[in-house]
């Protein structure tokens, strides 16, 4: 059936250029990018943020998150930043980012106080959980995982991105939404960053962003091994546009990376292989420490690190006897004995003891506060579960006091993937940097998921602010450098090339993405060897030479997707180069070679850093402990920030006490306008709308067929405000040609099911409908004698 064709609703600005100048340029408008921009603007500098989606709801945590790890300086914490940062380093056998983890542990709580001052919610101000074991009665802070040491906080993450965007607007930061960054601008030496280039993803306008310093704050790679052409938006853990473009840009510019050989067997791919993240019964991360039962209703025991069976729910949240603290969270799967926390018996042991499948999460057996905080707050605040799981399951009649939610597979991942199906999870590779978070390219900094061994939301926020602070300081000492027009011309030709290829003779971006994923599964899967890796490189090089010139696109949206696949191709080659460079196997890197089976020989215990110069790959070894003694090295470089904090945090904590006393919800952001506030404010005009008087669009637009309908509108409620289309981070919604009508779901297969559209709809006119296959089963609770 032929789908309806539409006129392109935005301006056609292909071939036009816009030049933007700022002191600091931030690439990526997720958590780390927003905080980088705020840090620089607080120093009085002009700042521009370039974001492919819409900053209000963009990024992996764009619609929320439920907990904040490593907030070691909060007033209730029983651990120091040094203890937790060093624990992460040791837990990961030193294949870890000591610098960034220490910044997270040392400054993470400062960023939470920032968020609270912007309007975000970080504490239980209404007393909803008063008296709960995890709530501190004096501060209203609420804790997860380790109730004794209190360094992981439960937070209301759905309030954070809107608060950050509001603060950026207050500070006069210019946010260029719907603009993809595609290449770094370098000076004539090729060693110094002077900005970036890109394209408006709705109009095709070419963007030149000149800056004294640049912060890369984009995502980690994805869609390298996993791809589904029908439900592309669901095939990875993160949003569809989060595919590692910053890594590809950096590589092409000569940036140095490490640990790119590290990948893990896939954990989530809701396009058919698994249920959505945290969308089925489990006891991991968002759901920790849910009570699990087997098919008969027999409770599955939790044990501490010594195998002692824990009798109460409360015991699941405390260290074992003689243990100072334990680690839980996004990058901790199977910790060492020293840091291992309470967990259910492993699957093999459960089978030996006669426990029967299927298993279920049964929150009805937990105390009321624990049940409500898992289902009502944690599942209700996490971006991946807020609307698609919490709201939809409630609408389906799920009651955690009466029902139990089925678990699938043999663990919390809800599926068992093949060894060749890989993902960048568990502190993966990324940009190698120094203590200023500066890359090997002068004046280019990195933060969040761009860094090697990156972690979760607190990591993103803390490193983002830190990188922005350092970039601002460098910008104050840097002069403007002119760019080479020839570099601009080459990038324009590269970006626009697919628009000139006849679609009847060309190839779609989906076909190329499928081919890359298949090649990586075949040649760089769970087991690697030189012969396979070299064959893989040869095949990908063939794709570059023969297939890339055949890519065909009919509008800027498709062009954006084609650019993403070109970046995925670049990242895939980076992984192959890194894998070839490591001549042994490694347990902490989840890296196995059949031709070099020796596991972690001492001679190979180092970081392998790779970069390219003039098309030739360069490799060097970096000591695992290159960052030195964490506290000493940090304080050596950050005395200005330490002095700045002395009075500020005391003021914010006193404000917080008033909030708890008076029931207020808003604190004030005090004294951060900076000397250059008015200068920066002049750059705030909106760039997402089409320019006036642009030529009529010549692009073709047609509804893309898909096996599901992710978004359903209620025409009787919708007022045609297009608020949903304005925040859709994957840009799948297009304004209707009929005034007052709801948008058209133009690219349903690209929906990430984040629920941003539902969250912003003023008339409750939208339903987010998960595919039938992704609706986990729930049943009434049962007692063993009822089985």
Report the major sheet. Answer: 7 strands, mixed
Number of helices: 18
Number of strands: 30
Question: What would you report as the Rg, rounded to the nearest angstrom?
Answer: 25 Å
Q: Which regions contain 5 or more consecutive residues with pLDDT less than 50?
A: 664-696
Q: Ends: how far apart?
A: 49 Å
- Beta content comes to 5-15%
The helix content, as a percent range, equals 25-40%
Task: Characterise this structure.
The chain has 787 residues and is α+β, with helices and mostly antiparallel strands. The chain has 18 helices and 30 strands. Helix 1 (31-41) runs parallel beside helix 4. The longest helix has 26 residues, at 556-581.
Keywords for this structure?
29% helix, 7-stranded mixed sheet, alpha+beta, 18 helices, 787 residues
Record the SSE blueprint:
Layout: E1 5-7, E2 17-27, H1 31-41, E3 47-50, E4 67-68, H2 81-91, H3 98-118, E5 142-143, E6 153-154, H4 160-170, E7 174-176, E8 179-186, E9 193-200, E10 206-216, H5 245-253, E11 257-258, E12 264-265, E13 292-293, E14 302-303, E15 343-344, H6 347-352, E16 360-361, H7 368-381, H8 386-395, E17 403-406, E18 422-423, E19 430-431, E20 444-446, H9 457-476, H10 485-496, H11 509-523, E21 527-528, H12 530-547, H13 556-581, E22 592-593, E23 607-613, E24 616-622, H14 630-637, H15 639-662, H16 677-681, E25 700-702, E26 711-713, H17 723-727, E27 733-734, E28 744-745, H18 756-760, E29 766-768, E30 778-780
Parallel strand pairs: 2-3, 2-10, 3-7, 10-20, 21-22
Antiparallel strand pairs: 1-25, 4-6, 5-6, 8-9, 9-10, 11-19, 11-23, 12-18, 13-16, 14-15, 16-17, 17-30, 23-24, 26-29, 27-28
Helix pairs in contact: 1-4, 1-9, 2-3, 3-9, 5-13, 7-8, 11-12, 11-13, 12-13
């Amino acid at each position: 059936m032929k789908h309806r064709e539409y006129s392109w609703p935005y301006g056609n600005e292909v071939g036009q250029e816009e030049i933007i100048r700022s002191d600091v340029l931030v690439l990526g408008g997720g958590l780390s990018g927003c905080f980088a921009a705020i840090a620089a603007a607080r120093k009085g500098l002009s700042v521009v943020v370039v974001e492919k989606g819409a900053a209000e709801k963009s990024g992996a945590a764009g619609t929320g998150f439920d907990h904040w790890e490593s907030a070691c300086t909060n007033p209730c914490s029983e651990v120091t930043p040094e203890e937790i940062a060093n624990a992460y380093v040791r837990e990961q056998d030193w294949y870890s980012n000591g610098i960034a983890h220490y910044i997270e542990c040392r400054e993470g709580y400062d960023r939470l106080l920032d968020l609270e001052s912007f309007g975000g919610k970080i504490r239980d101000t209404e007393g909803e959980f008063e008296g709960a074991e995890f709530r501190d009665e004096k501060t209203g802070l609420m804790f997860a995982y380790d109730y004794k040491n209190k360094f992981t906080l439960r937070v209301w993450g759905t309030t954070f991105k809107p608060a950050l965007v509001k603060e950026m607007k207050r500070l006069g930061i210019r946010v260029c939404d719907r603009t993809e960054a595609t290449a770094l601008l370098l000076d004539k030496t090729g060693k110094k960053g002077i900005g970036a280039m890109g394209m408006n993803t709705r109009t095709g306008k070419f963007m030149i962003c000149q800056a004294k310093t640049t912060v890369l704050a984009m995502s980690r790679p994805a869609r390298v091994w996993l791809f589904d052409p029908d439900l592309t938006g669901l095939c990875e853990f993160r949003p569809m546009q989060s595919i590692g473009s910053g890594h590809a840009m950096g590589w092409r510019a000569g940036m140095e990376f490490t640990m790119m050989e590290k990948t893990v067997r896939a954990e989530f791919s809701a396009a058919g292989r698994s249920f959505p993240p945290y969308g089925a019964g489990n006891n991991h991360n968002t759901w920790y420490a849910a009570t699990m039962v087997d098919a008969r209703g027999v409770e599955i025991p939790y044990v501490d690190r010594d195998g002692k069976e824990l009798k109460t729910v409360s015991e699941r949240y405390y260290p074992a006897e003689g243990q100072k603290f334990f680690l839980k969270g996004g990058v901790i799967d199977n910790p060492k004995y020293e840091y291992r926390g309470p967990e259910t018996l492993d699957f093999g042991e459960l089978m030996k003891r006669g426990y029967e499948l299927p298993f279920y999460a049964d929150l009805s057996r937990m105390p009321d506060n624990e049940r409500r905080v898992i289902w009502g707050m944690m599942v209700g605040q996490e971006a991946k579960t807020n609307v698609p799981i919490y709201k939809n399951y409630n609408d389906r009649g799920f009651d955690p006091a009466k029902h139990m939610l089925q678990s699938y597979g043999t663990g919390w991942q809800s599926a068992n993937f093949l060894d060749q199906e890989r993902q960048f999870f568990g502190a993966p590779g990324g940009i190698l940097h120094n203590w200023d978070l500066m890359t090997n390219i002068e004046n280019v900094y990195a933060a969040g998921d761009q860094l090697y061994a990156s972690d979760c939301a607190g990591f993103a926020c803390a490193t983002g602010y830190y990188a922005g602070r350092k970039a601002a300081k460098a910008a104050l000492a840097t002069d403007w450098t002119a760019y080479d027009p020839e570099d601009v011309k080459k990038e324009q030709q590269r970006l626009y090339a697919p628009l000139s290829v006849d679609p009847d003779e060309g190839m779609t971006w989906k076909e190329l993405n499928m081919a890359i994923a298949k090649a990586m599964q075949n040649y760089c899967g769970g087991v690697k060897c030189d012969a396979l890796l070299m064959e893989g490189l040869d095949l990908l090089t063939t794709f570059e030479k023969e297939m890339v010139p055949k890519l065909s696109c009919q509008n800027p949206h498709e062009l954006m997707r084609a650019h993403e696949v070109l970046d995925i191709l670049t990242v895939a080659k980076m992984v192959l180069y890194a894998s070839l460079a490591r001549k042994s196997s490694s347990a902490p890197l989840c890296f196995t070679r059949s031709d070099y089976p020796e596991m972690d020989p001492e001679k190979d215990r180092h970081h392998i850093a790779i970069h390219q110069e003039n098309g030739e790959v360069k490799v060097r070894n970096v000591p695992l402990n290159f960052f030195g003694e964490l506290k000493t090295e940090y304080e050596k470089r950050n005395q200005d920030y330490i002095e700045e904090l002395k009075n500020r945090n005391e003021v914010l904590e006193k404000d917080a006490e008033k909030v708890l006393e008076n029931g207020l919800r808003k604190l004030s952001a005090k004294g951060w306008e900076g000397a250059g506030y008015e200068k920066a404010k002049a750059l705030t005009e909106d760039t997402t709308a089409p320019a006036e008087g642009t030529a009529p669009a010549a692009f073709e637009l047609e509804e893309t067929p898909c096996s599901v309908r992710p978004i359903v509108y209620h025409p009787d409620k919708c007022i045609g405000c297009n608020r949903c289309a304005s925040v859709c981070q994957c840009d799948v919604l297009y304004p209707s040609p009929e005034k007052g009508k709801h948008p058209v779901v133009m690219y349903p297969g690209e929906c990430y099911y984040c629920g941003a559209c539902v969250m912003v709809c003023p008339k409750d006119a939208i339903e987010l409908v998960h595919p039938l296959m992704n609706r986990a089963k729930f049943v009434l609770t049962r007692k063993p004698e009822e089985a």
